[in-house]
Design a protein that fits this description.
Blueprint lengths: L1 E5 L3 H9 L6 E6 L4 E3 L19 H11 L7 H5 L5 E4 L11 H10 L3 E4 L2 H6 L1 H9 L5 E2 L10 H8 L4 E7 L2 H13 L3 H11 L7 H4 L2 H18 L15 E2 L7 H9 L2 E9 L4 E9 L10 E8 L4 E7 L3 H14 L2
Parallel strand pairs: 1-2, 1-4, 4-5, 5-6, 8-10
Antiparallel strand pairs: 2-3, 7-9, 7-11, 9-10, 11-12
Helix pairs in contact: 1-13, 7-11, 8-9
């Protein structure tokens, strides 16, 4: 498959680097201000500057690292290139979910497929995306928007959403790292947050993670999968957005609460839960040695099913190569 990768952050760069291992070619790459497009696929010559079909992955990544751009072309040239699948890996935005939403719908209007790592369009405009798919010969996939490398969406789809009663789990590595350290060392939130920022586990502004927004977006996406997947008529499905989620973060979790929980053989984790009717994210007490008490930056997804009981899938919920593996897995499903 020929890929156009929009977004050159950690995930986009990893897709560019790993696509060849999965049997795909990257024919265009764009960041917010520049692009490179392979010869013969529209736009200008690729970073490799030769007659190869795809761009030179090493050259694109090196140029981004050294000069802050991926090429000399305009980003629009990548969107209009001759590709099979658009990979949308720009940063998540809320509300209108732009520009990611427009990137995806532009691909669908050309009857191309789109694979999203960007949570915004799937969490905030799921109904609009489904309508665009209905009018296109292209499809969308979005495994990477929930749990990084963890195959949460595809597992729910394989079981069939109508046979899944709930999906819950630990879906944010930053919040989980902080709670794990607070419990292990008896430290308070602010101390561990500063440590996490020093280690690069938490952003300078950690709000998106510690306030529960990131986990809530993932749960909203899962709720949409459950709602639309179980409906006989999509018109009858309930569409969820972030506004429909009941969200509490971890800022107000005191170290004393974790110490008291430990005395009772329990600990605290930020748990998100989605059904076809509700979305909730909040700190919850869980058994200290239980399945949901994953440590550090690990994530876990629990899927409650009608006939197969409870399924647990854990792993890395973030990271460039990890999330890129989910993106490229989705590309494979479109072949």
């Amino acid at each position: 498959m020929r890929l156009a990768v929009i977004g050159a952050g950690a995930v986009g760069r990893s897709v560019v680097e790993l696509a060849g291992e999965y049997g795909h070619e990257v024919v265009a790459v764009a960041d917010s201000s520049s692009a490179t497009v392979a010869d013969g696929t529209g736009g200008r010559a690729g970073a490799g500057g030769d007659d190869s079909v795809g761009v030179d992955p090493d050259a694109v990544v090196a140029r981004k690292a050294e000069r802050g751009i991926v090429g000399d072309a305009d980003p629009e040239d990548a969107l209009s290139a001759d590709y099979d699948v658009l990979v949308e890996a720009t940063p998540t935005t809320l509300g209108d979910a732009e520009p990611g939403f427009s990137h995806v719908t532009a691909a669908l209007e050309r009857d191309r497929h789109a694979v999203l790592a960007n949570k915004g369009p799937v969490a905030e405009r799921f109904g609009d995306l489904r309508a665009a798919v209905d009018d296109s010969d292209g499809e969308i996939r979005f495994e990477a928007t929930v749990g990084g490398a963890i195959p949460a969406v595809s597992t729910v789809e394989d079981i069939e959403p109508g046979h899944v009663t709930a999906v819950r789990g630990v879906l944010n590595g930053t919040a989980n790292f902080i709670l794990t350290r607070m419990a292990a060392e008896g430290l308070d939130y602010e101390h561990v947050l500063a440590e996490a920022q020093d280690l690069g586990v938490a952003e300078a502004d950690p709000s998106f993670d510690v306030d529960g927004t990131d986990a809530a977006l993932k749960c909203v996406i899962l709720a949409n999968v459950l709602s639309f997947g179980a409906a006989d008529d999509p018109a009858d499905a309930r569409e969820f957005t972030l506004d429909d989620a009941d969200v509490s973060g971890i800022r107000d979790v005191p170290g004393s609460a974790l110490r008291l929980a430990a005395e009772d053989g329990r600990t605290v984790r930020l748990i998100g839960e989605a059904t076809g009717e509700t979305v909730r994210v909040a700190p919850r007490l869980v058994p200290e040695n239980g399945t949901l008490a994953v440590s550090g930056t690990q994530n876990i997804v629990q899927i409650e099913t009608s006939h197969a009981g409870r399924l647990n899938i854990s792993g890395r919920g973030a990271g460039g190569p990890e999330t890129a593996s989910a993106v490229l897995g989705d590309v494979g499903r479109l072949e």
